[in-house]
Amino acid sequence: MNALPSNLPGHPNPRKFIYQSLADAIRPPERLPFTQWLPRNIVLVDGPSAGEPWSAEGAPYLVEIAECLSDDHPCNLVTVRKSEQSAASILALSWCLYIADREPANTLYGVPGIDNLQKLNGQKLQPLIDAWQKRIGRTVIVPQTSRSGRGSTAYEKRFSGGFLSLANANAVMDLSMVTARKGVKDELSKWQEIPGFGNPERLFFGRFTAHRRTKDWKILEISTPEVDSGDELAEAEGHCRIDRSFRKSDQRFWNCICPECATTFVHAEDRLKIDHAHPHRTVYPCPACGHDISEAERVIALSLAAGAHWKPTCDVPDHPGFHIDAFISKMMSYEAIAEDVIAAKTEIEKKAIANLVFAKPYKFRGDAPDHVRLLAHVEKHLKRGHVPPKGLILTAFADVQMRGIWLEVMATAPNRETWCVDALYIDGDTADHNGPVFQQLKRETIDRDFPDAFGRLRRLDALGIDSGYRAHIVYAWVRNNQRAHADTGRDLILATKGLKGWGRPALGQPALVDIDLGGKKIAQGAKVWGIGTWPLKVTVYGDLRQEVPPPPNVPLPPDGYCHFGDWCDENYFKQLTAEVLEDIKFRGRVTSQRWTKTRDNHFHDCRVGNVALTDYLGLSSTTPEQWVALAQARGLPPELTEVTLFTPRPLALTHASAAAPGEIKKKKAHERETAPQSSPDAGWLKGYDVKF
Ligand SMILES: [Zn+2]
Question: Where are the beta strands (DSSP E) in 150-200?
Fold first, then answer.
């Protein structure tokens, strides 16, 4: 040991540091199963029990999942289909720390989207690591001393015997450089096809190739569900990924014990007896004896002490799958579930309840809104071509046909309320990108001044053009007319194409394509932006169904409400509602769904395109302060630019859970935090400074 340097520059006790490091690396870890390790190591860092040690009491259903994750359990794959407020996410992160401490292996942790990746490290993992190491008085994760090159980084945690690598599952670069033996597929239902590379799950599993022969790999899949494609075998493209995997597992459900007759039962959402007038009186009738199980009885019925347990419903010996819903979560209650169900009116809200409360995928209803009702709701005071006071974002979308161009100009408020500012058809041959039709398109869009409510003139913030019919002509026109947005420097004009399927972002990253114009080729001369039309169609239909509350309520339009002027005629509304979502059947069984047009649908496409553009402009990621800055820049009077006006309405409810000490602040299911569907570089308004 004389060879060891007697001083490390800058370190107070270099010998002790080196010997301790060696000892830590050499000493075999004490044998301790994950289930016993959890309460001795993990300190909860958020939620009602923040600061307290992890306890099986809080979430008894997690114990058996933890058993499956230890190296001595023979399974390779564990699937958890979960609701929110289930405490299951903390188990996934805790498992990674257990791996670092006791069963070291290279571990890959995939999350969808760069925003989620940053949030995962900054708000969840690093605080959990800090609280853990403080509690055990040891350093297991090598600190972030990045200069040496051997320390941890934000997205790679190094430890003796391996590393934990955090990766954006929706980007191919992140998944192609690591070989792993253990992995977590977090929020799996929001993993999206990667353009040019395909299925992100296949790319993820590619990192485990070295361990496939020896079968000593282990992967935990965990997610709230998303969309039910209608395929009874769950195999259709776009079917919720966690549901697909759960249905291939042994499908374990948590069996509760009736306090009256001691029969075991699994909660079913349609059995809940909701008291609409008094949600706190909501009960669950026992399927065996009919006894109305109260909230206080529920908490006992689901406990380990009462004998509650997991029971598989399918005979798949080597793939455990667990279903965790709000019924078995101690952070929820019958009352909270009832309130969520009562509050859910729109398709989007109902989907949120299914996904986040009942942990089930949601099958969208795809019938079109009634165009006659929409026509009856036009507002005579709106002026064609004028931007209304709250319309801070102004977009236009053009649907280019073989003959003629359909165009809608739309204004959007921070609460997603929209106004059709203009809707028109430009007739003529579209074969020439310099021809009169495209010249008029320019006059009606990027060269047009739109008067606003404050005596100013506004210009478009973005123009989208569908390139489906006349691709190369559209590319050429966009190329010749492109300009940068005056405030952001980003492209003002976007050539787009619609993409089928669920699970796609509103507007993904652009692809570079070659232009061929009259024989003259320009390699990668144009950008094309894919629009994930299917989820947007559902959003548009949901918003079109919104109603202004009738008297005696305050007639305040709800978030997302759509306004139309009286120049919007029957043809406009017929086109706007011209698609329906249909089941596709093969040999008598439903295999998937598809959107089908029932008549001309150009204004439908224009509306979907406009909503996609608001996503490009960062509608979903803009902060109240940024809206204030934009409102001031747009010349809104001071009384309309207070920050509170742009803060999401305070709908959060307070529920007192029988299980948890004190009160839990809880939002309704559709308002809870989910992974943003926006493009990774959304945040159009980040350049604005707030001036008060
Ligand atoms: Zn009973």
Answer: 156-159, 162-168, 182-186
Quote the pTM value.
0.74
CB distance 79 to 221 below 8 Å? yes
Residue range 234-277, pLDDT digits in tens: 887 778 999 999 999 999 999 999 999 999 999 999 999 999 99
For residue 265, the CA-to-ligand 1 centroid distance in Å is 9
Q: What is the Cα–Cα distance from 412 to 392, expressed in whole angstroms?
A: 6
Cα of 291 from ligand 1 centre, angstroms: 5
Between CA 348 and CA 96 the distance in angstroms is: 34
- How many degrees, rounded to 5, is the angle at CA 385 between CA 421 and CA 406? 65
- Nearest in space to 461 (alpha carbons), one of 490, 495, 439: 490
Strands of 227-340 (E only): list them: 252-257, 264-265, 284-285, 292-293, 309-312, 321-324
Distance 257 CA to ligand 1 centre (A): 8
Alpha-carbon gap, residue 122 to 390, rounded angstroms: 35
Centre of ligand 1 to C-alpha 316, Å, is 30
Give distance in angstroms: CA of 292 to centre of ligand 1. Answer: 8
pLDDT tens digits, 294-321: 999 999 999 999 999 999 999 988 999 9
The per-residue DSSP string of 540-607 comes to HHHHHT--PPPTTS--PPPTT-EE-BTT--HHHHHHHT-EEEEEEEETTEEEEEEEEESS--HHHHHH
How remote is the CA of residue 34 from the centroid of ligand 1, in Å? 35
Determine the distance separating the centroid of ligand 1 and the alpha carbon of 261, expressed in angstroms. 4
